[in-house]
Amino acid sequence: MRDKTDTTSEQNDNSPCAGACPNTPVEALVELGQKNHYGAIPTVRLFLAKYHTYPNTLECTNNDEDILYHVTTVLDYIRDELKHDINQDCVLRRRHQRTKQKYVYSRVTDLGNGIMIEFSDASLNCEVQNPNNLKVDHADNYFLTTEEIKIYYLPKHDVFVDDLSERFSQMTVFSSKSCTLEMVCKNDCGYYLRGIKIKKPLITDLALHYGTNFVSTHDKILTNLNKKESKGIVLLHGIPGSGKTHYIRYLIQEVQDKTLIYIPPDMAKEIASPAFLPFLMEYQDAILIIEDAENIIKDRNESAAPSQAVANLLNLSDGLLGDAMHQQIIATFNCDLTTIDPALLRKGRLIANYEFNKLDLESSKILSDKLGFGRECVNEPMTLAEIYNQNGKNSQLDD
Prior knowledge:
single chain; alpha/beta; Rossmann fold; 13 helices
């Protein structure tokens, strides 16, 4: 990053840039900016009045809506590295009801000589993950965050502003979204659902976690799961620790407007129960998630007592029941694919079949470095669990 730009004032009387209006009265200049709205600072109008030039604009946003700028870290950088007095900024404040703290939700920083930075719609947020170990703003893990930072500037500062935006991109936290998963339970009265909150794991790059070949598979799975009145089955299998459940936690956050029904391992056998299918009929267009499904998907021809559970899964995924109930199934298992019933793999029934494994050596090194462990200790392909739990650090990564 280069030194702070020159902060001496100038009127740009002889500026060659297209937006320059050196001889235009201030009253006429400000009319070129957006009209002022309640609760917003008229940044473009301020820029026009001070610099007599319509500004270039760089909108600093992230492709992933879960990534948020940490406003306080950005301001610390502006204060300490660019030697700017943030007490001179134009700000709008609010009072946060829960923390009883006042905070700045809108701010305009004028660096001088034709650069203004706008922070808008900032809020105190405690539902975040903080892998960059940024300093918290308030107790109870509250961070002042915003989705977007806008930089208004004269054309001559284009390279400087690009560098500045790149710096800001490192000053982020991640939204910790959650969704409700309905878990199947049973009592003396029969089956019922109980809602549980599932937080979205911190996966900012699927290719980095699961390999580049998996990205197209994920897109196919998500597209099918978001279809209304659809059916079919997704089979996710592989060695323990390869991140199957971790991926499902990520996947279900991307599913829109469907009931997600989780069948825990100790309840999986209930799929064979005569009372279970009538219970499921109450939840049409839902997605069933079955973990550790080995015991209910094994090949019926290899079993002395063929499981009714397999027949029910087949009927739900591509039979008459499937046509009527429009339910989709996600099943995970650790056993070899050759041991499961081949009917589950038939075209038309199968949405996707993917085997999770260890990441290759280079990918393991990159992810390890990204997580802050470094590359030096990685000398062989590793599972996600092995990468996340180096040095005895408990990452709470799922299978």
